[in-house]
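=== How it folds ===
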Amino acid sequence: MIDENLLLNHGAKRVAYSKGDQLFREGESAVNFYQVASGEIKMNNYNEDGKEFIQGIFSIGQSFGEPPLLARVKYPANAEAISDAEVFQLSKEQFLDLLSSNPKVHLKITETLAKRLYYKAIMVSEISSQEPEHRILRIIDYLKQHVGKVEEKYGYRLDLTRQQLADLTGLRVETVIRATKSLEKKGELQIKKRKVYR
């Protein structure tokens, strides 16, 4: 999202993480801006029973954790490396300086945050009231449109595991498997070599 050279010129550090490493934990103070340079990072919570709920998955070029940084509140979720990853890390002061001196970047960040709010509003509604098949299609369609930017039928490959899809939709893995097979029979998606296409 933000050009790497611009980040580095404003003092960003490129920090390496191994799969499973925590970048920050729920309840900690937000002090840095983060943008993925390689690998993938997830933001998640766990309920009282230890079930994981994934708030989002972020890959190369995507930033995460900005709302608590800008709102001066604590992180509402954990951030964890899904794979070996490198992340640009920029202190809050340096990040704010970057935004104030680059209005186009500031607007892009605002636009990204607005899209995430829209996604959250949709998912809260979906998870609370809709059937599993509908939830799954809604999350896949959101990713297809806003991440993959693909329009043709079966042109978007979902690069999430069944467990990740379950954690994003609040469903059990078994329910995701049954629902995706049912959706394939209805022609809503295709499954090739264990990958979902929409």
The chain has two domains: 4-102, 130-197.
